[in-house]
Design brief:
The complex is a heterodimer.
Chain A: E1 2-10, E2 14-24, E3 30-35, H1 43-57, E4 65-69, H2 74-78, H3 103-115, E5 120-125, E6 131-140, H4 144-151, E7 158-162, H5 172-178, E8 183-189, H6 196-213, E9 227-230, E10 234-238, E11 243-247, E12 254-255, E13 260-266, E14 271-277, E15 282-288, E16 292-293, E17 298-304
Helix pairs in contact in A: 1-6
Chain B: E1 2-9, E2 17-25, E3 28-36, H1 42-60, E4 68-75, H2 78-81, H3 107-119, E5 124-128, E6 135-137, E7 140-144, H4 151-154, E8 161-165, H5 175-181, E9 185-190, H6 199-215, E10 232-235, E11 239-243, E12 248-252, E13 259-260, E14 265-270, E15 277-282, E16 287-293, E17 297-298, E18 303-308
Parallel strand pairs in B: 3-4, 3-5, 5-9, 7-8, 8-10
Antiparallel strand pairs in B: 1-2, 2-4, 6-16, 7-9, 11-18, 12-14, 12-17, 13-16, 14-15, 16-18
Helix pairs in contact in B: 1-6
Classes of the chains: A alpha/beta, B alpha/beta.
Chain lengths: ~300, ~300
């Protein structure tokens, strides 16, 4: 059943509605799948569709409720804008919002209020247009004890436990975890694109988690065993020069110290401005997708294994 | 005066980003003034240019106190300003959310780090700041309540108000906050607009900084300028937001600084098609308009005014 989470009038003849699809078999756990906070991250669109489709195909396996929120930022998705258009604002920096705040804060508060009480929430992100990410769950250290056991069912390759940051206290996940609703942040793929193999992989993981919680009785795969890492095992490679990045490795490939990750070149002079090498042995779980780089642009992240 | 490049970042096809600083005097790092961190802060850039002009004159008259120095950095983000963009041209990140910066990190972290390395040791840090909502404030000095804030010293600017702000999580990466953490007394000066130039407020802001420098014994005098106001210290929590509850065209009647009486009509929200009144906003209390938004379209919940109760 399509439900309205919140509806607000825009200035000129348009209503802004945040919608969800509630699929329910009655009593049982409640699982929320949310995406579309950043309007340029589209991987979650295909995951929402796939979860919807599989439940629709076998409603007899559902024990409980699945709430699907495909577009927390509908204005952004429909206008190819990462933030909230008109406000130049990153929606994932305004949570938990405020009911009596400005429009964006009101929307944020109503979203949190609507998801609150779920047994688990999966918040799907898709990096940005610059970087390609392996399917992973990101967890703040302060919530690791609660969330890592749940994340193990998500069929991702990697669970990244990262340091707490005050800036991240404004995210949806932080807001939900703060009110006792476990929220897993999934990152995968690249902005403005959909990666079909990742769609299937994460959708499989969501059903594994549902089964673990007792919300799904149908067959599921055996979730893959992810590498669980803390911050110390991730190497960041940033561009030392501006230019065009030409990768020399494939995303997800294992590399050794000194292996070439790629070149930053200058098309005007025909010279290589910088060769980028791996400082360690590990897996390239983040790789630059957008070719134009400034000095400092992230080129890759390598998980030391 | 010494003009120097504080930080430089090469681009692929564009000219390099050069962050330029103007140093007056030498010796103790007494005060640093930073202008535009965002590409649309034209008022803040222009204010800095007028401050540089005034300080050149003061230096020529021998009115800089020996053994003290002032650094003015008019613009940190000319790359965005030249293409009329508020945030960083490629990844749309905000330099004022990157402090103290990281010299090996992402591009805007490097810019923040390069700037902060040069300015972090100044005794007083002054930033000409802007607000993310289009609108105008009563001229004021804003200070974060970090535990190290110095409201008494802020009175030396002689602006009408000093606003104390309880930092939110995202404030911890701003220049003002990090200056305080590094033990500078940090002040954000809000005067006038952002995208356009308001000359009266430019003069007010320049005079405020010159008054501050004089009272801090960094300069001995200026041309005759207004001494400034006896500042009133207010807490951000004392401000009352006057919000619209409907969306439409906003017809706002009052400017910052106006006195209002309880029950007075402050604005109307109009139907954008037929002009009928959707909502009247009235003053719930007596007060002074501290902020007035300037966007002609309003969204339900938008803060149209901030009122000092």
């Amino acid at each position: 059943m399509i439900k309205t989470v919140t509806r607000i009038d825009l200035p000129v003849d348009e209503e802004l509605s945040i919608l969800k699809n509630r699929v329910s078999s009655g009593e049982g756990p409640r699982v929320s799948v949310v995406t579309g906070t950043h309007g340029d991250e589209l991987e979650g669109q295909a995951v929402c569709f796939e979860v919807n489709r599989r439940i629709g195909e076998h409603p007899e396996y559902l024990r409980g409720t699945v709430d699907l929120y495909p577009a927390l930022n509908p204005l952004g998705i429909d206008s190819i804008t990462r933030g909230i258009p008109g406000f130049d604002l990153d929606m994932n920096r305004i949570f938990p919002g405020a009911e009596d705040g400005v429009m964006t804060e009101t929307i944020a508060a109503r979203i949190v209020n609507d998801i609150r009480g779920s047994d688990v929430c999966v918040d799907i992100h898709a990096s940005n247009i610059f970087l390609r990410e392996i399917p992973q769950i990101r967890i703040n250290t302060v919530t690791a004890d609660t969330l890592v056991p749940l994340a193990m069912y998500m069929n991702v390759d990697f669970i990244w436990i990262h340091a707490a940051s005050t800036v991240l206290e404004s995210t949806l996940a932080y807001a939900l975890n703060s009110v006792g609703t476990p929220c897993l942040v999934a990152e995968m793929g690249v902005g403005m694109r959909i990666t079909p193999e990742y769609t299937r992989q994460l959708a499989d993981g969501i059903f594994c988690l549902m089964r673990k919680l007792g919300a799904w009785t149908g067959p599921v795969i055996e979730p893959r065993a992810p590498i669980v890492s803390a911050d110390g095992k991730v190497s960041f490679l940033n561009a030392g020069a501006s230019g065009i990045f030409l990768p020399q490795v494939e995303h997800t490939r294992r590399v050794l110290p000194g292996d070439r990750i790629g070149d930053i070149v200058d098309p005007l002079t025909g010279k290589v401005s910088e060769r980028v090498y791996s400082p360690c042995a590990g897996m390239v779980f983040t790789l630059r997708e957008y070719p134009v780089v400034d000095e400092g642009s992230l080129i890759a992240r390598i998980l030391e294994v | 005066m010494e003009k120097k490049t504080v930080f430089q970042l090469k681009s692929l096809y564009r000219d390099a980003l050069r962050v330029t600083g103007f140093t007056f005097g030498s010796g103790e790092k007494s005060a640093c003034v930073v202008g535009a961190l965002r590409g649309n802060e034209v008022q803040q850039l222009y204010t800095c240019s007028q401050l540089v002009k005034a300080l050149k004159e003061i230096e020529a008259q021998g009115k800089l106190v020996p053994g003290k120095s002032v650094l003015v950095v008019p613009c940190v983000n000319s790359a965005s300003m030249n293409i009329r963009k508020r945030f960083w041209p490629t990844d749309n990140t905000d330099i004022n959310r990157m402090f103290p910066g990281y010299s090996l990190g992402e591009t805007t972290q490097r810019i923040a780090a390069g700037l902060f390395e040069e300015i972090k040791d100044y005794k007083n840090g002054i930033q000409f700041a802007s607000f993310y909502v289009p609108g105008v404030f009563v001229p004021h000095v804003r200070i974060m309540k970090t535990g190290w804030e110095n409201a008494e010293k802020a009175k030396e600017f002689g602006l009408p108000y000093i606003l104390l702000r309880q930092p939110r999580p995202y404030d911890t990466t701003t220049l003002n906050y990090n200056w305080q953490v590094w033990e500078s007394d940090a002040f954000s000066v809000y005067a006038g607009t952002t995208d356009t130039i308001d000359r009266n407020d430019v003069t007010l802001a320049v005079n405020a900084v010159l008054n501050f420098l004089r009272k801090e014994n960094i300069i001995t005098g200026t041309r005759h300028i207004h001494e400034g106001y006896i500042s009133e210290v207010i807490d951000e929590g004392d401000l009352m937001n006057i919000q619209s509850h409907t969306s439409g065209i906003i017809d706002a009647f009052l400017s910052p600084g106006a006195n209002v009486a309880r029950g007075q009509t402050l604005a109307q929200v109009l139907d954008p098609y037929d002009g009928s009144v959707r909502e009247q906003l009235t003053a719930p209390t007596d007060g002074v308009i501290f902020f007035a938004q300037e966007d002609p379209l309003t969204y339900a919940g938008s803060c149209v005014y901030k009122l000092i109760r």
